[in-house]
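User: Structure please.
Assistant: Input sequence and predicted structure:
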Amino acid sequence: MNQDFPLALSYDDVLLIPQYSEIDSRSEIDLTTKISPNLTLKIPLISTKMDTVTGVEMAIEMGKLGGMGILPRFESIESQADKVSRVAKAGVPAACAVGVKNGFLERAEILIRAGATVIDIDVAHGHMQKTLEATQMLKNKFGNSITILAGIVATYEAAKDLYESGADSLLVGVGAGSICITRIETGFGLPGFSSLIETSKAARELNKTFMPDAGIRNSGDIVKALGAGASAIVGGFIFAGSEETPGELIEIKEKLFKKYNGSASFAEKTKHTKLIKDEVNSNYVKQVEGVESFVAYKGPLKNVVEKLLAGIRSGLSYGGAKNIPDFWSKAKFVRITPGGLKESNVHDVLTSQ
């Protein structure tokens, strides 16, 4: 091994510098965002393709609020197509995930006939020949009639290759999720903020878009991601526990929770072996890179989204930006020390909450 060791940064390692602003009210800020030539959202929020995050109810509500929900792929084609159809009939964007093995193109075609306008090529490591080939096959077959999302990526090279294979937008973030243990199990990954900066270089060159799909915890992280060039964020943890997410409420010590499981957790993989037998082998369940967890019940999704949007609008106002593209040109970051991070959080007081 003969190499330098470059520094890589997470969201907590940076802050945005306040800029001159002519914004009188946060209500002036337009959060409309263009993901692809065929897909524009009113807000930069998308719920991820996890069984405990996005189902039909969640996807519809996200769409009604101006964002989008991506339906998971770990079920039969018939079941997934039925869900896509129900979302599409609600008059909101119908987005769904597919893999890259055993009949993925046939699945995609059935889902598109059911009403899907967004196909997410769902692979943990997007910079693989198989993913590039699958992306190219989808683009060759369906052209610009659909929006193709692909990932997961963390580097300039991966982003460039997937864009050139036909991806309209990329999902960014290897191992950053709260329930992901990829970095612990494999030793691979790249901190979230640096992953975005890497991807942004390819996106600017090829006039494409990208979004983080891991590690977003609050509206401040969202603002930092947008400042780094993202068009939106794809969230799991920040939406998990909402009323509209799949699953029942669970009471633990007189408090309400909902399940939030990593897609690569043992519980989810065990379920996958029963639902998509043709796509997995005998080693599938052994390759665990996620955990099972509970998150506190958050109430209606609308309340969760409105709180996030308030923080995002406030953030853009500090940046002197009236919309997301304006923010891209004005955002300036600094690295901070551990002392700066401590200063950023509540400190030296006993809170009442």
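The chain has a mean pLDDT of 93.
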